[in-house]
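Before a colleague's protein record goes any further, I have to sign it off. What it holds is a sequence and that sequence's fold in token form. My question to you is simply how this chain folds and whether the tokens agree. Thanks in advance; the entry in question is below:
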Amino acid sequence: MECRKFEITLISANELEDVRHICRMKVHARVSIGGGGPKGEKRTPTDKHGETNPAWNFAMRFTVGESVVENYNTMLVVKLYCKRKLGDRYVGEVHTPMKELFDLSRATGGSAVMSFPVQKGCVVSQGMLRFSYRFGEKVMIDKLLLAESVAGWSLCQDGSRISSQGGRNLS
């Protein structure tokens, strides 16, 4: 399986819509690739001081399959939320195809800094999100090797086990 490392650093957002009119806004971001859901989602720390202009400068690393950068179907999704005691309040989000980011980064030497308008639904909301990113070189990962390194051993068809050192255990 061909993969690449993808590193994104969420730098800041500015002029976001103030969704808390009484208290201060404390904003965090949740990042996912391809709608990975809660399991594939990563989160920034909450900025407690910037209010409508949060700054994180927080790096996240993902491993993505080569197919992610070969077609426009897989999206990078960054959702912004305001922290509240009664549950986080949605501020807005940014969607962009991973292929587009990959093509832009290749033209600039492998990394880039981008700013995108924050959207709420299909309407452009208030504010901009700024982030930098880079893609690593393509590497080949054997799925069986990856599974064995994670598990430490695997079961053979005859019920014996192969340890990560390569020996068989007939327990």
